[in-house]
Design a protein that fits this description.
mainly alpha; flat; 3 helices; Helix Hairpins; single chain
């Protein structure tokens, strides 16, 4: 159980360190999602709950990743830069 908390802390630290590069930020957010999904699955398994909530959480994660990827494609086509500092969204 402590492994998931350490993974979450390391993922949040990595997200704060690579926040200038948009693609790496999306990858770190996906690692955070995977860690939370594993914690959620372990919790559901421990208390013998149904796994339908885990499936809903997984579907929401897929939607989040597809939205992030489509935003990345839009920003790269619009600005041709991959770094967040160079974006002027206003």
């Amino acid at each position: 159980m402590y492994m998931f908390f350490f993974m979450m802390i390391f993922n949040l630290m990595a997200l704060s360190l690579v926040r200038k590069h948009y693609l790496m930020s999306l990858i770190m957010l996906e690692f955070i999602f995977i860690t939370l999904f594993n914690m959620f699955y372990l919790y559901l398994n421990f208390f013998n709950f149904e796994y339908s909530m885990g499936l809903i959480y997984l579907i929401l994660g897929v939607v989040e990743s597809s939205l992030g990827l489509s935003l990345l494609v839009f920003l790269v086509r619009k600005t041709t830069y991959m770094y967040v500092n160079s974006f002027n969204l206003c």
